[in-house]
């Protein structure tokens, strides 16, 4: 059974650095749409490796199916040279759950990542890589 996509996102590409700004909660349908959009953008990166900033607003939790789909789209990015992910969680009452869900995917795929409270901190970190 298919549902209406729940959650939203905006993708920006700046200096071969991917920025995804999103608000949840997320279901599998929105993650599949994100995956399709990324598959059009990521192959255009020409650097050997690249980084991303994920900025999450509101209650950006994932259904179990959406979390599994997130792992798949992350694998695609790793297979296309994603080297580091900075994750910014803004104003949420469920930060611990969001961090747990995201960490499961990143750890499963051995993706270097770090959580931040502010976007500026994440940008500073990426400049050091």
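^ structure tokens above, recovered residues below v
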């Amino acid at each position: 059974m298919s549902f209406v996509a729940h959650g939203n996102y905006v993708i920006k590409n700046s200096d071969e650095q991917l920025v995804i700004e999103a608000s949840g909660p997320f279901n599998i349908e929105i993650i599949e749409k994100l995956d399709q959009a990324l598959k059009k953008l990521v192959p255009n990166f020409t650097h050997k490796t690249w980084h991303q900033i994920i900025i999450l607003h509101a209650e950006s939790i994932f259904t179990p199916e959406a979390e599994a789909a997130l792992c798949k789209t992350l694998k695609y990015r790793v297979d296309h040279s994603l080297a580091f992910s900075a994750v910014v969680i803004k104003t949420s009452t469920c930060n611990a759950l969001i961090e747990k869900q995201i960490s499961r995917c990143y750890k499963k795929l051995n993706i270097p990542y770090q959580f931040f409270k502010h976007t500026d901190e994440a940008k500073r970190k990426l400049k050091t890589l």
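The chain is about 40% helix and 35% strand.
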